[in-house]
Amino acid sequence: MSGTELLSDQGLRIDGRKPNELRRIRCSLGIFAQADGSAYLEQGNTKVLAAVYGPHEIRGSKSKALHDKAFVNCQYSTATFSMGERKRRPRGDRKSTEMSTHLEETFAAAIRTELYPRSQIDIFVEVLQADGGNYTTCVNAAMMALVDAGVPLKDTVVSCTASLVKDTPLVDVNHVEQSGGSPELVVSILPHSGEIVYMSLTQRFHIDHLSKVLDTAIKGCKDIGVILKEIMKGHLTKLDTSLQAS
Amino acid sequence: MKETPLSICEKQCVIQAVKEGQRVDGRSLAEQRKTCITFGTEWGCCQVLLGNTRVMAQVSCTIQVPKSSRANEGMLFINVEMSTMAAEHFEAGRLGQQGIEVNRLVERCIKDSRCIDLESLCILVEEQAWEIRVDIHVLNHEGNLIDAATLAALGALCHFRRPDVTLDGREVIVHQLDERDPVPLTILHYPLTLSFALFDQGKIYALDPTNLEERSADGKLVLGLNAYRELCTLQISGDGVFIRKEAVLSCANVAASRAVEMVEMLKKCLAADAAERIKGKYDGLVSSVALEAERITTQSQATAYFKTPVHNLEENADEESLSVPKTKLVKDQGIVTLETKSDVSSSESDIEMEPLPPASVVKKRVYEEIDIGNDSEEEPVMLITKELT
Amino acid sequence: MSIAPQLLRGPSLMAEILLSEAEKAFIHHGDDLRCDGRTRLDYRPIILETGLVSNASGSSRLRLANSDVLVGVKVELASPLSEKPLEGRLEFFVDCSANATPEFEGRGGEDLANEICRFLQMSYMSGDTINLSELSVLAGQQCWVLYVDILILECGGNLYDTVSLAVKSALYTTQIPSIKVATMDGDQPELELSEDPYDTKRLNTQNVPCLVTLMKIGNHYLVDPTPEEECCSSSGVVVAVSGSKKITAVRKIGSGSLHPESLVSMLKTASEVGAVVNKILMKKLLEEETAGKTQKVGFMR
């Protein structure tokens, strides 16, 4: 797909957004009763459910236990009806396993694992509808679920995608822009310190553009961080008032 | 089997050395290990030796029905195999997490960056197209599998020749190799990966890490670049890595210049291989065996070459008494010890700077001196010596 | 009598429940009054919403107290089965998400998923339920295949009922694009898919079966058991009841035994309950449809 279709002459993208505009974010915390923490996050048309169990005793073989910190176990699963073309297996293929590993590494860096030696924290994400930015929405949803579960974190983790079309960096790409051949840079940062915890790039662009695309992605992350923080505050104040009332 | 555990002192030794700008094998932070690329007698067989890491890639092709979503393109399939031969903790047959990571990175660098022109592989739209399959086998794991695997895959793809086909109406005739010369693949650009191990919260990065450095590091930064300074892929991973944007950009610059050199080297090796084939006398992979200078034993040999920080060794050989203790590394048949000496004998002056000579030459074990007081000349010094026959 | 709580497992390998002897005694002897105040033939509150997943041709989410199921239906063109060339196909796939319980991680939930999937297939096999010949496009060559994908998000007892009601709602809202066959001279006729996204047809789901689970506790049987009640009973039946009050499939669950007379009376009760459930569900689906396009709530509450 040529660049002219992804970015019009007026500077508008396919879904009408400006290059530096994020998609609409809606989030709901605490939707499931039996999970310790759960969250539902929508970024545009991408919908993700995350559930957190833990910290609890290591399930399965005890050899996985780490003597000085908790072991983070993640599972990334996509529903079979989530994509345009039906997916035969929700998990177990290479891409899902790779995503699960990256989620584990990201959250092992952000959670204060040294407080729970020899235990396990489970994070399960389920993609209900995929419209680009699946991994980033999963990271954000899992982070909200961790906050709902009350797991101590060093800092929140926020993730965002950025792309480059006709020398203009775009933030928060959707499926059409992603499959159109333009490069996609996924970044997860800790918003307070601005440090990068995970980064990956698909497709290619010249190294001179790296700086501005990276800047766009980091700015997008910080913006998403602000929005999610507001949602978190709203949820916790609601919880507080209902506890005080009872 | 489980991987041999990494002891805390080994890990801290590596981290401390890197903080001082030194690496365990004597390289600088932006230096790569010796890279050797050899090609086999079959078209599409490439072996890469990156230090001690050995990876082999083989390319094959078959005719298949193209995917319905991309009916006018051929297909490229990349498969990585890691058997227990490479390292004791690899499972035969099943790719563990590390294997999947290597597989995905090679795929992203080579397949997703579209370095091969897939449209030229189409024979009949929607009916027949070439499927190119790259099988990468990891033969020995001594760190930095990703770079070696990508280089091997790229070398194999550049080296490969597929059979020529002609269309007779709607019939496809595949010519045998002796009928018509096989056709090389159309390579649009040469993408390679360069890996950095990240230490100290992302402030220090070391290019081309060995296995020991990889395991001691906080995380890893993998950059995929081609000769035109275009970034093909990028990945930061590791549990405990926090890196700043400026560090990423400087790594990218270092990697870009290295990538240009590596592509040049690959092209030279390909040209040399082509020249040898024309001459007729062709050894294939046998030529790579002669490149071995070290004996490989069943024991893992930890070789460490730290440079002494301040003093010149020739000076020390003359002056017998020195009250300034020096940190020196001593090699003794596989056992590395880090010792602080206040005196050093001239017979050791060679050992720090050169690789260890074969075992038969080392006759005397290096002795250590423990200086209790200040001046070694006055007080008796304890000597521990052992003669080896 | 010991008063220590015992760890029990329900008949369908669902989560372990801790129950004390006093609770078990109440469940056994409760006289038409259950722990949550219901009578024996009452259902727990149901929340239903359709059309949540835009990538699927039909979808629904059903929440029966604590059991949460999301169903998506996708339609594709494929060749029909060789023994049924004039009919379309209906394929079920059940996935137990690890969100429900960590034991479902990886392949842990496969046993339960396969059980539910097989019973659903059995209950839809009868010609009375759904008219598959409506799905045929070109006799013997092309037909519509409906892939019904069920995602179990939370297990709160009575999964069979929840799944069947969700599937029925999803099939009700499924829109199949209309297709025209333009015959060409010679071998291969071409199929033309309609360009208009609203030019679709819907299936007649009047007779699509609902599953009713009846658990036998003591001398009585209960409809819509909670996980605690499931653990206390030793046997039960799951009955697939179609809209015309006919029973299309029966399965006995649990390790206990059933007297033939009680089995017959359970089937009678089940078919009556099933008919009522079917009627109410169709009424609600019609109400939702006529209410028009409103903002989808989904999981946002």
Write up this protein.
- The complex is a heterotrimer of chains A (about 250), B (about 400) and C (about 300).
- By secondary structure, chain A is of the alpha+beta class.
- Chain A has one domain: Ribosomal Protein S5, domain 2 (2-Layer Sandwich), CATH 3.30.230.
- Helix content of chain A is about 30%, strand content about 30%.
- In chain A, a hairpin with a 2-residue loop joins strand 2 and strand 3.
- The mean pLDDT of chain A is about 90.
- Chain B folds into two domains: about 10-290, Ribosomal Protein S5, domain 2; about 315-385, no CATH class.
- In chain B, strands 1, 2, 3, 4, 5 and 6 form a six-stranded mixed β-sheet that branches. In chain B, strands 12-11-13-14 form a four-stranded antiparallel β-sheet, with helices on both faces. Chain B has a two-stranded antiparallel sheet with strand order 7-10.
- In chain B, a hairpin with a 3-residue loop joins strand 5 (about 120-125) and strand 6 (about 130-140).
- In chain B, helix 2 (about 95-110) packs across helix 3 (about 145-160).
- Chain C has one domain (about 20-290): Ribosomal Protein S5, domain 2, CATH 3.30.230.
- Chain C is about 25% helix and about 30% strand.
- The model of chain C has no long low-confidence stretch (mean pLDDT about 85).
- Chains in contact: A-B, A-C.
- The interface of A and B includes residues 104 and 210 of A.
- Strand 10 of chain A pairs antiparallel with strand 14 (about 230-235) of chain B, so a sheet runs across the interface.
